[in-house]
C-alpha cells in the first residue's frame, strides 16, 4: 500500500514537471514568434520601422549601450529607485494596516480619508513631491512608494480583519495578549495576502519610478524614454521598455520564489 502511494506520488510529480516544461516551451515559442513577426513586419514595411523600430536595430543599440556603459548606469539607477520604493511602500502600508487593526477607533476615523486617497491619482502629486523633496532620488523613490502604499494598506488591513474570529478566541482563551494574538494568528494567516500585495506592488513601483523620472531625472530608464522621444530615437525608447519589462519580470519571479519558500515553511 505504501509503495503504491509512493508510486502515485512520483507519477504526479513527473506529470507536473512535464506540464511545466510544456508551458515554458510554449511561452518561449510565443516570444520568439513575436520578435520574428515584428522583424518581418518592419522589414516588409507592414509597419513603420521609424516608429516601431525592429528587433535587430534594438539589439545593435543594446550592444552599443552595453559597451559604452551607459545602459548599466541608467538601469542601476532605476533599479535602485524601484526596489527602494517597492520596499518602502510595502513596509509602510503594512505598518499602517497593523496600526489600524490595533486601533478600531483609528480605523473608523481614517476610513474615509483612505478611500479618498486611494481614488486620487497619486501621479498628480509628483510636482508637489519634487518641490518638497527636491529634484533627485528622494522624490522619485517617494513617488514609487506613494503609488503603492495606500493600496497595500487597504488590502492588508482587510486581510487582517478577515481572519476568523474563532482563531483569536482560542488563543485569547489561553491568555494571549493582543500583541501575541497578532504575531501568532493574524500575521501568519495573512501571509498569502501580503505576498499577493507584493506582486501588485512590483508593477506599481515601476510605474511610480518611471513617471518620477519622466518629470525630474537626468538618469534612469524613464529619462532614456523621454530623451529618445525628444530626439525621435524610437530605438532607444523601445530598448528602455524592453529592459523595464525584463527587470519587472525578474522582480516578479523573485516575489514568487519568496512565496514558495514561505509556503513550504508554513506547511512544515
From TrEMBL:
Membrane topology: Multi-pass membrane protein
Keyword Magnesium recorded: no
Gene Ontology biological-process annotations: transmembrane transport
A Pfam family this chain is assigned to: BPD_transp_1
Chief place of localization: membrane
Location of the protein in the cell: Cell membrane
Segments forming domain ABC transmembrane type-1: 75-252
Homology family: Belongs to the binding-protein-dependent transport system permease family.
InterPro entries given in the database record: MetI-like, MetI-like_sf
GO CC term, one of those recorded: plasma membrane
Entries under SUPFAM superfamilies matching the protein: MetI-like
Superkingdom, taxonomy of origin: Bacteria
Name of the molecule in the record: ABC transporter permease
Amino acid at each position: 500500500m505504501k509503495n503504491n502511494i509512493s508510486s502515485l506520488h512520483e507519477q504526479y510529480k513527473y506529470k507536473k514537471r512535464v506540464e511545466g516544461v510544456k508551458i515554458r516551451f510554449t511561452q518561449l515559442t510565443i516570444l520568439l514568434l513575436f520578435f520574428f513577426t515584428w522583424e518581418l513586419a518592419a522589414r516588409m514595411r507592414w509597419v513603420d520601422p521609424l516608429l516601431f523600430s525592429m528587433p535587430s536595430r534594438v539589439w545593435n543599440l543594446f550592444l552599443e549601450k552595453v559597451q559604452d556603459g551607459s545602459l548599466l548606469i541608467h538601469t542601476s539607477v532605476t533599479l535602485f529607485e524601484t526596489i527602494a520604493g517597492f520596499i518602502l511602500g510595502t513596509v509602510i502600508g503594512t505598518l499602517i494596516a497593523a496600526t489600524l487593526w490595533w486601533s478600531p477607533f483609528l480605523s473608523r476615523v481614517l476610513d474615509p480619508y483612505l478611500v479618498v486617497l486611494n481614488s486620487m491619482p497619486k501621479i498628480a502629486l509628483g510636482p508637489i513631491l519634487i518641490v518638497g523633496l527636491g529634484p533627485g532620488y528622494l522624490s522619485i523613490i517617494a513617488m514609487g512608494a506613494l503609488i503603492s502604499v495606500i493600496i497595500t494598506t487597504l488590502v492588508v488591513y482587510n486581510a487582517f480583519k478577515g481572519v476568523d474570529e474563532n482563531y483569536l478566541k482560542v488563543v485569547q482563551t489561553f491568555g494571549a495578549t493582543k500583541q501575541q494574538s497578532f504575531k501568532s494568528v493574524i500575521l501568519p494567516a495573512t501571509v498569502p495576502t501580503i505576498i499577493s500585495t507584493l506582486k501588485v506592488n512590483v508593477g506599481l513601483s515601476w510605474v511610480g519610478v518611471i513617471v518620477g523620472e519622466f518629470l525630474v531625472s537626468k538618469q534612469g530608464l524613464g529619462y532614456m524614454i523621454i530623451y529618445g522621444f525628444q530626439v525621435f530615437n524610437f530605438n532607444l525608447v523601445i530598448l528602455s521598455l524592453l529592459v523595464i519589462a525584463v527587470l519587472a519580470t525578474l522582480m516578479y519571479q523573485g516575489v514568487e520564489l519568496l512565496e514558495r519558500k514561505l509556503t513550504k515553511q508554513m506547511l512544515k
